[in-house]
């Protein structure tokens, strides 16, 4: 990386070249370049003014918060999709009973048959 002066305080310390490049990208609102250059990992230039170091730290903190918010949003979306799928499955029609299984338990079927016989006997 070609050493360049700090965008804000014009510091030319070579050990801060990467931090200077990141600050320059941030000044141009080029967040993609700042991230590529190491916004989330790079330490601030020790020779820069405290305002420059704070600007770099503030940008890093803001980006970390944004990434965390994006992750929370994705997790919430996935959770809501799982809940919706469970609700849709619960609302779905229950499977049709198999034709081999009787509709009523044997005792209930016998009681119903006796009641039907009594009703027929009364009508006759």
Explain this structure to me?
The chain has a domain at 14-66. It is 63% helix and 0% strand. The chain is built from four helices and no strands. The longest helix has 42 residues, at 50-91. The protein is rod-shaped and about 115 Å long.
Put the structure in a nutshell.
The protein is an all-alpha fold. The chain contains four helices and no strands.
The number of E-state strands comes to: 0
Structural class: mainly alpha
What does the average pLDDT come to? 88
- Could you spell the SSE succession in H and E letters? HHHH
CA distance, first residue to last residue: 106 Å
SS field, number of helical segments: 4
Low-confidence stretches: none
> How much helical structure, as a percent, in the residues?
55-70%
Alpha-carbon Rg, integer: 36 Å
Shape: rod-shaped
Instruction: Estimate the strand proportion.
Output: under 5%
Main β sheet profile: none
What are the main properties of this structure?
4 helices, 124 residues, mainly alpha
What is the element layout, followed by pairings?
Layout: H1 17-27, H2 31-37, H3 50-91, H4 106-123
Helix pairs in contact: 1-2, 1-3
């Amino acid at each position: 990386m070609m050493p360049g002066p700090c965008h804000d305080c014009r510091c030319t310390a070579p050990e801060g070249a990467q931090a200077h490049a990141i600050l320059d990208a941030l000044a141009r609102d080029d967040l993609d370049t700042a991230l590529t250059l190491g916004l989330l990992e790079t330490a601030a230039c020790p020779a820069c003014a405290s305002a420059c170091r704070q600007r770099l730290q503030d940008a890093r903190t803001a980006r970390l918060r944004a990434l965390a918010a994006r992750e929370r949003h994705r997790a919430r979306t996935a959770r809501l999709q799982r809940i919706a799928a469970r609700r849709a499955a619960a609302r779905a029609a229950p499977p049709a009973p198999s034709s081999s299984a009787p509709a009523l338990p044997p005792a209930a079927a016998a009681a119903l048959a006796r009641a039907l016989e009594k009703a027929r006997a009364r009508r006759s």
